[in-house]
Description:
By secondary structure, the chain is an all-alpha fold. It has eight helices and no strands.
Amino acid sequence: MSDHGQKRASDLKNEKHVSFRDGIVALLPELRAFARFLSRDRMRADDLVQETVVRAFASRDQFTDNTNLKAWSFTILRNLFYEHTRRCKRERAILDEYGERSHPEAVHDAALSDLSDLNRLLWSLPVAQREALTLVGAQGMSYEEAARICEVSVGTMKARVSRARRFLNESREG
């Protein structure tokens, strides 16, 4: 390959990385909102977003131009959330074994009493339904994009959103 050909290939690669970086930066507010909704904790959400960005940049060569960057990065964030949740459950089990935890029910009840009715209802949804409603409703994703992120069929995604909305409507009316 000539020097000119190598330079052009290098320029294209640099343009791709700049475009990728700009795309990730533009998604930060949406990633943060999704992380906050999943984790219910501002600091944990910030950590999730930071780790998502680190993993995205570490894997940027696996990202293809015709792929939806938003869906790709939301998938990374979602997988991290579940990975952290599993890790926390194992840690809690170990701490419970040694009797070093306070009563989680009391902490949970106190936190719920401070939340608004809608917030309380959202958090009473099963995780899969809350996640689906957040992606489609709050994030404005299509059912197809949300289904890809959650690794389920479009029909399953539609059913989850429908059940979540029905539950919220019935709970607010009743």
